[in-house]
Amino acid sequence: MRIELQKRANTSVLFSILSPLLALALTLIAGAIMFGLLGKSPLNSLYIYFVEPLLDVWSLHELAIKAAPLILIAVGLSVCFRSNNWNIGAEGQFTIGAITGSILPVLNPEWHSPLILPLMLVMGMIGGALYAGIPALLKTRFNTNEILTSLMLVYIAQLFLDWLVRGPWRDPQGYNFPQTKSFQPEAVLPEILDSGRAHLGIVFALIAALALWFMMRFMLKGFQVSVLGQSERAGRFAGFSATKMVWFSMLLSGALAGLAGISEVSGSIGHVQPVISPGYGFTAIIVAFLGRLNPLGIIASGFVLALTYLGGEAAQLSLGISDKVSRVFQGLILFFVLSCDTLIHYRIRLIFNPSSAQEGKS
Amino acid sequence: MTFEGVEASPLLSVRGLTKLFGSFAACDTIDLDIGHGEIHALLGENGAGKSTLVKMLFGVLQPSSGTVSLEGKPVVIPSPGEARRLGIGMVFQHFSLFEALTVAENIALSLDPRTPLAKIAEETASVSRAYGLPLDPSAHVADLSVGERQRIEIVRALLQNPKLIILDEPTSVLTPQEAERLFETLMRLKAEGRSVLYISHRLEEVQRICDRATVLRHGKVTGACDPRQETPASLARMMVGTEVAEVKRDSANALGDVLLQVNKVSVASRTPFAVALKDISLKVRAGEVLAIAGIAGNGQSELFDAISGEYPIADNDGIVLRGKPVGRLRINGRRLLGAGFVPEERHGHAAVSALSLSDNLLLARSRSDKKAFLAGGPLAIVKRDAILSAARRICSMMDVRKSGDDPTAGSLSGGNLQKFIVGRELDRQPSVLVVNQPTWGVDAGAASRIRQALVDLAKAGSAVIVISQDLDEIFEIATTIAVISDGRLSEPYPAGELTLEQIGLLMGGIHDSHSGEKSSGEDRAGMEAAHAH
């Protein structure tokens, strides 16, 4: 017996639109079962996890803080994925962006100029882009697989950050804590409202999403992305360069991940420390797919995934369960999104065929 | 003659074998006998039904009607596994090997899983020695040449001790030396009393090694003969048919300047299955339709890639477009000089199936029609309306039948999509148009519309190159004909002076006497260069 995926002749337009919502519903059902097995009331747990964080103004601010890097990274990744370049290392580009962006405030803590913040942001973007340029170079030069190289570079970036804040960048007056001095006020990303901590990061994210939506929808560049992503040969016929597209999409997504990194360090943390991200770079992959690789969809899915982080914190406090639950929910969402999409395009067939089974033995 | 009288019943006997795809008969009441210890050639053009026939013999396809008998007993062959058990082995043209595994591991995959690997390695080594097929069982497939990979397939088939081995175009991927080796192996198999069904369109080879030949044309057997008693010309006639195509040429167009010229271009093959181009020269004048005939896989796509600039060539002067050397220029640069291109493969090359017709219009013309289709300078904003109306204009000009205003390319039938793709270029009034297989897989109505459009374009003073396998089409529209075979292009002949028989000979790789011996020597050098990885 074997299981075969058979392509459907027609894919349902209705279900392609409903697919993300269906995936969310299935995630909630699976989550309820999981809470039940943990011995908690499923409904109450889901309420605490997914609804309570939306009821307070301060937690809405937290939601925006967590959604900002997710959206920024995911819109960049959506361009990558649409062009058939699989940048899995946004977490590393985020980390390097945070480091290069922090060079100015860490090395010049006494420089009080309004110029410092824009320079930090630009340097963060350059750092992220250059770091994403490594897998791009390896792919275009040596035909290496960017999935592997970009992923491996994540661990290099994280260990480099760890070494930096425990070694050369450690604050001498910091009681031996592995972190840098707090940034000077001019180097901190300003808050947008008086009511909470949400900073300019979310504004950058929305601007980036709108800009890339415009590019994909109206510009020749967006057309090139989708042609090369669907058929490199047709792209070559059109005179579009697949090599240039590798560079464009990797540098763009790296720059946005780097911007997310420096915004996170400058806006939410205020200094550099060994761990600066709860896995935004990886969660953004889920955000990108849940948003159907559409920048506007990604804005919505970014907030949904941000909620799983907040809910995880709330569940830890009120229900006494591990915050790893948020990882479980993120995994469930990705699993259900991908399976819904697969089932929209394919039907499953079980094949019992004695003659072909025999052939395998012969 | 070894094929007659030795055994009472032939090894394989096929009677009235027919395979219908819908109402189309790919094989039509085919009779075929293969004797013991006989090398039997199966000849025919592309689409003659050779592959369908051998797929039925190997159990990949099931016949619609007719019988197959092995040594006098009727058999049903439901699967390749059953075919192997009956003693039929097959070596496909494109190999099914795992590059990361060793030779022995690849062979083990098709054998009884209980056989230990060491034993397989041992048998592989002994069989390969016995048949003169040197092969190291522990070598990784990735490190092997194409010829060595083919040996794995042959050894794999031999290990099952077959009575009949089917070889599908075995020499099409081999260097002349490797082919020589293969022929020796075939002779050894024959000496052991095994039979070989040898599919090829190379007449020289067939005459050299085959005892009998069956010729297919349009799914029917058109001849059964002893190839050594025939001349290449008579074999070719059986292959391409003797009926005279209706040549419809108006009073010859007045030929103008040379618009496209290719000067002695040689290109090494990019992949193991690609064909290297050897010393190709051609010239097309305004008002001329140059048809390049040839059987698929003889370098047509590679020639198209070089002329279109999808894969530019090293020698800038190798291709001259309207007086400018363009060898190193890419496709859009050549489009800007007034050239248009229609590749063979519609889906995923000429068009992206999931994109709309208007997007597919932009695909080919984003650079050449920049002013009309793009706005906003460096932002390059796509002007939807302009493109949509151009797409509508093309659809009405070429009578493209479609559902909805701007459907996806994938939703159109092959013929209608092809009309759109050809119309997309004609709409620009290109001064040079290069079309690869203009009517491949296209219904008759669309085909005649496309041919008419190509003839009209030449009449209006453009130079047209048509690469085609369809000889009827070539005689209908060509003013000049050249034949491509094994990456080499023949002299051009005025269409009126060339007979079907001569084309058949050229397609079979037999060039005129003046290039006979010499060219096979060059051939060798060229192939070696191409295969020296």
Oligomer: heterodimer
How much beta of chain B, percentage-wise? Answer: 15-25%
From the 3D structure, determine the CATH topology of chain A: ABC transporter involved in vitamin B12 uptake, BtuC
Task: Give me the CATH architecture of chain A, please.
Answer: Orthogonal Bundle
- Average pLDDT rating of chain A: 91
Task: Characterize the main sheet of chain A.
Answer: 2 strands, antiparallel
**Helix share, percent of chain A:** over 70%
Report the total helices of chain B: 18
Low-confidence stretches of chain A: 354-362
**Unreliable spans of chain B:** 1-7, 243-248, 513-533
Describe the structure concisely.
The complex is a heterodimer of chains A (362) and B (533). Chain A has 362 residues and is mainly alpha-helical.
Written description of the protein model:
The complex is a heterodimer of chains A (362) and B (533). Chain A is mainly alpha-helical and 362 residues long. Chain A has one domain: ABC transporter involved in vitamin B12 uptake, BtuC (Orthogonal Bundle). Chain A is 71% helix and 3% strand. Chain A has 14 helices and two strands; from the N terminus they run E-H-H-H-H-H-H-H-H-H-H-H-H-H-E-H. Chain A has helices at 13-37, 42-51, 57-82, 90-107, 116-142, 146-166, 201-218, 220-230, 232-238, 242-269, 280-290, 295-318, 324-345, 354-361; strands spanning 2-7, 346-351. Chain A has a two-stranded antiparallel ribbon with strand order 1-2. In chain A, helix 4 crosses helix 11. Chain A starts with a strand and ends with a helix. Chain B has 533 residues and is an alpha/beta fold. Chain B is 34% helix and 22% strand. Chain B is globular, with a radius of gyration of 25 Å. Chain A binds chain B through residues 218-221, 223, 226-227, 230-231, 233-234, 236-239, 355-356, 358-359, 361-362, and chain B through 78-82, 84-85, 112-113, 308, 310, 330-332, 335, 341, 343, 345, 348-352, 354-355, 359, 362-364, 366-367, 374, 379-382.
